[in-house]
């Protein structure tokens, strides 16, 4: 009887620990994010807007990403996504901008829209863009994103970071920019395959590497959950053994 009670207690505590661990991890995974989230100032990079479907019954049917106009990106191209239509909207900037090379920019890509496909419940999709050169004078670029569901619901991912450091409800997807040479140390890098002069085969290799990195991140998360559960279970087991011996 004592062993059975200990087993039930261990199972309950372990389940609670697992739920707590997953509960802490999932909110961050459910946000629209940019991957990789860091790139080098002045360089080119290939970024993926990772869009998860957060609804139980409805699908995501359209994604609109707004590009910065205070620090416009001179060159933007996209990778086709099977089943989705993509539109690059170019237009005049609210005010001319002088870039790092001293050139005046009056027009740029203002928005990219993906539509016609769907992201079903429990799934996510990555929408890739090659951009550059990145500005040297700022530490980040923000890309407000609008996610539209099949039931007509619209979610705006545009909330600025809170002053107290806590996470906003719908944080704006942000690309952090670091000085050249610090990309690898910060978890990002200037992607040579994003440059227009790169060989055509290079992007495919880069995509494979990113997929592996994403899998590694998921594996690390699951490993962390397993460790947390194991520690709790071991503690309960040892406590039960001591009580039974006593």
UniProtKB/TrEMBL annotation:
Pfam families: DUF1775. Residues 31-177 form the YncI copper-binding domain. It comes from the Bacteria. Keywords: Membrane, Signal, Transmembrane, Transmembrane helix. Residues 1-30 form the signal peptide. Gene3D superfamilies: Uncharacterised protein YcnI-like PF07987, DUF1775. InterPro entries: YcnI-copper_dom, YcnI-like_sf. The keyword Transmembrane applies. This is YcnI family protein.
